[in-house]
Structure formats: C-alpha cells, structure tokens
Design a protein that fits this description.
By secondary structure, this protein is α/β, with parallel strands linked by helices. It is 23% helix and 22% strand.
Amino acid sequence: MNDMREVEVVVVGAGQAGLSSAYHLRRAGLEPDRDFVVLDHSPAPGGAWQFRWPSLTYGKVHGMHALPGMELTGADPARASSEVIGEYFARYERTFGLRVRRPVDVRAVREGPGGRLSVESSDGTWATRALISATGTWDRPFWPRYRGQETFRGRQLHTAQYPGPEAFAGQRVIVVGGGASGTQHLLEIAPYAAATTWVTRRTPVFREGPFDEEAGRAAVALVEERVRQGLPPRSVVSVTGLPLNDAIRRGLADGVLDRQPMFDRITPDGVEWEDGRRVAADVILWATGFRPAVDHLAPLRLREPGGGIRIEGTRAVADPRVHLVGYGPSASTIGANRAGRAAVRDIGRLPAREEPAAA
C-alpha cells in the first residue's frame, strides 16, 4: 500500500471518449498527474484508429466528430485515417497538456482503502475517488463459433486483423457480417479476389435518405434503453441500418452485395448449408463486430443478470464512482464527447473525501 498514488480521477483509455473526459477534467480545474491521470495501453496516440487498415482513408470515415476545443481541419481525404486521426489526437494531447501515460495496461479495478477505488496497472496502483472507463471495444473482437470451424484449412481473420484488399488477390473470400465493416470489406476485396460471398445472420437493412438529428436521437435512445436494462449494448449502426450511398448501390447492382443467409457449418474447404449447398473458400473474414472491453472492472461485479452493465447517463448503477464513456449509446464520436462532459459533471457531485479527525 505504500507505493499507492492518490488522485481524484483515473481515466482508462485515450481514444475519443478518454480524451474528451480529460479535456473536461482540465476545464473543471483538475490538473493532470496531480488530480487525475490518463492511462492508455496503446503504443501511440490515436485510440483504436491507429490500428485501422491502410485502405480506410480519412475520406471513407463516417461521422468523425472533432474533439472538444479543437477542430480537425485541412485533412487530406486520401490519407489513411490511422495517420490523420493519430496525428490529430497527438496534437490534441500536447495542446491541452493531458500527459497521457502509455503504454500502460490496467489489469483490475477493486475496492480500495478509505472508500476509494484501487486501480492496478503495469505502471503501479492508484487510489482514486472516481474512475472513467473509456476502453472502447477494439480489444474485444467477437468471433462466433460454428460447427467445423477448427477443420477449415484456409485462413480465418477478423476485421481487427484486416490488412487491406490486396492481401486477398486471387483468393475465394467469404465475408461474414452485415454491418458497415462487412460491406466496406466486400467492396474493397471484390476487384482483387477470385470470388466473394457475403453471409449475414440477419437480412441487412439499408437506410434511404439523410440521417438527420431526429433519427440519430431515436437510434441512440434504443441503444440507451438496453443499457438501462442491464443488457449488453448494441452498436448504433445495428438500429440505424446501413446508409444506401453510391458505393452500396453499385455493390448491389453488380452482385458484390448479394447477401446469403448464415451457413450451418464450416468444412475443411469452405462452408455449407443444411440444404446441401456449398461454397469453397480460401479465407473466412469475420466482420462480426466487437464487445465492450470491460474485463478490468470484473472485480467490482458490475454486470447485471442480463450480461451488461446497467448505467444511468454514464454512471454505473451498481457503483456511482464508476463511469463508462464510449459505451453503448455514447459509442459514436459525438456521443463520446458528450459522455465525457456528462461524466465529469457527475463526478463533481460525488461527496468529497472525509479527512481524518485530528487527534
């Protein structure tokens, strides 16, 4: 306990949500390293963006909202989003003096001394009055399990490992998943691959027309209702549908986005359905999304019977000292900004630590 450092707030993660939170902590008068720390396990600034595939250029990024207090202007749409956003986040950290500590792995958050939380990390332990968990989902890729999966002789990889379309030249590729990543992968890979097959569990829903503010609020409200009930959050995209833009229209017209129902089993050479239909494949690309990276919170036992963490606003109902930003309804970039501000405001309402009485 002698080497435990005390701060008012620990922020875990330095993506959009974590940096927004740190910005609002500074605006509230808290000083980095003295009153709060930001711990990030990534090797460099950029959050999950730094790991995105090279062909995801900044011009292809949907709805990237600027961090509070600093606009992202003049970015070349042809540059890789990992470079553009990585440089932007680095500049943001310097400008506001956020002093992010990295690479630091947060291993566990437990009940600590004096009513504080104990945050155990690869860079030591902090005792904190409040915790902002802004760990996102990138570290928890979801891999579904299907019969025969271990027999497949080809390559299986997840969106988190996607290297870009050139790596699939001349190969037969099955893309699994009906979200934005799945359609982007298919449209990129098709010109290089020998053949592509698109498989989804549910029939994809394509959204016509603009996605206005009212529609956005309605979508976020649906996701928010799940986390209020303690259910695992779904992505905002899962309730909004896929935007029917020009690239999607071309993919539908030329047959690249010819969706097939989910196969029943994986064979050594591909996949097959109960009706006997088969598709041979060299690669199965799982564009099946991610789950919240919240294992570090397990010692606090915040999960509800439904499998999720019930939150009100950003606060965990089971422990008001814990705030989750970039979780569920705040997983979008604009939502993360708002959640960071809301979390800091809520933390300001926590009772101050009682000082021991003089002898």
